[in-house]
Amino acid sequence: MGMPTSLAQSLTTLSASKYYGALIFFGLLLLCLYASRNLLLGPRRVKLPGPSGLPLVGNLFQMRAGHARSLADWTKLYGGMFRLSLGEREAVIINTYADVNKTLIQQGAAFQSRPEFKLWHGAFSRALDPDAPTTIGTTKFSEQISKYRRLLTAQTSAAKLPSFNHFAARRYFRLVRLLADSAKSGVAHDLGFHFWTTTIGVSADILFGQRFGEDMTRLVADVNIKAFRQRSLATPVHDYIPLVATGEQLLLTLASPLRLILRPLGFSTWLDSVYEAEEHAKELRDAEVAYCKELLQDLHKRLDAGDPTPSQMGDIFRTIDDGTLTPNEELRLATTLTGSGMSGGTGLTWLAAHLAAHPEMQEKAFRAIEEEYGGEVPDPLDTDRVEYIKALGTEAGRYFASIRLGFPRETHEDVTVDGVLIPKGVLVVYNSYQINRDPQRYDSPEEFVPERWMDGHYGRTDVKQPKVGVPHLNHGAGRRVCMGVPNVNKLFYGNLVLLLHFFKLERAPLGDAARDAVFPKLRAVGEASLEMHPIDDQVSVCDPQALPLAAGIKLTVRDPQALARWLAEGHRELDQWERPNPTLNAFESMPSEIVDPGIRGHY
Question: How confident is the model at residue 403 (pLDDT cuts 50, 70, 90)?
């Protein structure tokens, strides 16, 4: 007679438990040995002061309390430059303008490389193809990177941007139409969708030289916002402790049987989170690669057919010999610029909610527009004409510092700063949130004061000074500074001047339907306070880009008749409807699948 089925199953389960138990035991043993090694031989190449950490993890878990506050507290104790131990990585944190000048600017060549992280460069960027390119801005320095930057700088300069005005003008019209619809509803809406799909939409339009429809615009904006979250500092742990990365990979390989064993013990939640994070990164990358490849193929077809429409990628292809760029190089350029409007959308979302709680600032902005334009609708393409609008945008970049820790650097070579050697390969982080509050650079740094950028002032209201250096560190400094700054500033101004000319803003709670429509949905985990505190009112204190929580804004049209006239005919005065054949209807030169049906009748 054979063994009873139930007994056989029990013995099988027992054997499996012993097997996996042995794996876990030896894993813990290796972990202890590794911890001892790290305790005795951990990285300590940089002789800078800094907080003490724990064996193996260093200061990793201390950062979990929030990047901005943790680093601000340490700055008070250790000064403008200090050292952190992040697992096996040693990091130098830069916290003042003076130290930015000593490092990123005066010795820029030594600080021009980028570190690599497992989640971003592995699970995300190379998840589908080991040879797939990362973006130019997240790649280690090389002569090839210099070549790419030269190509892109020519396309992102302030002098080049007017050739893309027709794309920006169309997006501005769409923005005002969306805002008018929100105002007509009579209830509060979160305006994140309005701003991100405008700024990222323009970036995608000018990159590929075509006007994208709503589905594609939403997809590109959603992917880019979520993809940026893969690049945080001090998280996930496996980016900093290779043994954890190895262990996680082993666990993921054995995921299905292990979950059955670990779930009753309460350990499966962690395993599930690791698995889901990897899968989410791959899904984002899959979507990004798919639409970039499709758009590049379409662009090549249009160029081969003789389409002269200006576009950043198209103009690059026109100026270099055929075949110079490989498909992977083309993809690298495309993924670098597709979401370049993201930080602008983030800053506008913060600022609009802040202004909605400060009617006095709105009124001052409206009067400034009226004074400059004599009651006429302002030209959103005439960037920086209204000084107060420009000052609001600059102060929003400083105060909210949407890119909190900048884009991490890595020393490209050994370098000495104030007598301290920083070896090649050390992670370097410029703490843009703290630098943007440097009391040596700004008076009343914790207050939102647009006037610090007006009437000859440059950062301080108590003294007038020349415009030297960048106004804030939201886009970096020195080598590897963000190439898209002119476009970000242009879009910020255009969105803001139209918003404040046509509408009054008032904070109000979101209803159920409006909360369901918050974009992206991850921001609907809560509603921001009226204060719009830069730290307390963000989605996550450890995100690399500070996404604000949802904020309800009720819009009131200042002059309904003037708005109706502009939507019907007034936008034509922008006179930016350039197209390959001027005898064609504005939409006949575009593929039908990328035209918004809801906008067709407005032209």
Answer: confident
Share of the chain above pLDDT 70, in %: 79
| Dist CA 236 CA 544 (whole Å) | 12
3-state helix vs strand vs coil in the chain, percent to 5: 55, 5, 40
Whole-number Å distance between alpha carbons of 236 and 404: 17
Inform me whether the pLDDT recorded for 303 exceeds 90: yes
3-state secondary structure (DSSP) of residue 438: coil
Contact 197, 596 (CB under 8 A): no
Show contacts of 14-21: CB within 8 Å, 24+ apart: 16/257, 16/261, 17/261, 20/254, 20/257, 20/258, 20/261
Cα dihedral 406, 410, 415, 419 sign: positive
Contacts of residue 24, defined as CB under 8 A and 6 or more positions apart, other chains included, come to: none
Asked whether residue 482 is marked as a ligand-binding residue, the answer is yes
Per-residue pLDDT of 344-398, as tens digits, reads 999 999 999 999 999 999 999 999 999 999 989 999 999 999 999 999 999 999 9
Residue 275, pLDDT above cutoff 80: no
In eight-state DSSP terms, residue 126 is T
Report whether 259 contacts 268 (CB < 8 A).
Answer: yes
Neighbours of 21 (CB within 10 A): 11
Q: Give the model's confidence band at 268: pLDDT under 50 very low, under 70 low, under 90 confident, else very high.
A: low
263 or 147, which is more confident: 147
The one-letter amino acid code at 321 reads: D
Q: Which tokens is 346 given?
A: 């983030």
Please give the Cα distance from 451 to 304 (Å, whole number): 51
Measured in degrees and rounded to the nearest 5, phi and psi for residue 33 equal -65, -40
pLDDT confidence band for 547 (50 / 70 / 90): very high
In contact, 491 and 202? CB cutoff 8 Å = yes
What is the reported pLDDT for 27?
60
- Helix segments in 542-596, DSSP class H: 560-568
86 in helix, strand or coil? Answer: strand
Residue with tokens 């802040």: 354
Give the CA distances from residue 483 to residues 145, 153, 155, 184, 292, in Å, rounded to whole numbers and listed in that order.
13, 6, 9, 38, 20
Does residue 289 or residue 175 have the better pLDDT? Answer: 175
Nearest residue to 496 via CA among 395, 415, 598:
395
Of the given ranges (93-107, 164-178, 304-318, 587-601), which has the lowest mean pLDDT? 587-601
* pLDDT beyond 80 at 20: no
**CA–CA separation, 175 and 491 (whole Å):** 12
CA distance 538 to 560: 34
Helices and strands in the chain: count of H runs, count of E runs: 21, 8
Q: Quote the CA–CA distance of 428 and 119 in Å, as a whole number.
A: 18
- The pair phi, psi for residue 430, each rounded to 5°, is -95, 120
Q: Do β-strands 553-557 and 420-422 pair in parallel, antiparallel, or remain unpaired?
A: unpaired
CA distances to 50, 330, 342, 481 from 224, in Å? 34, 18, 7, 19
Let me know: does 409 contact 400? Beta carbons within 8 Å: no
If you average pLDDT over residues 18-46, what whole number do you get? Answer: 56
Count of Cβ atoms closer than 10 Å to residue 541 Cβ: 17
C-alpha to C-alpha distance for 530 and 514, rounded to whole angstroms: 18
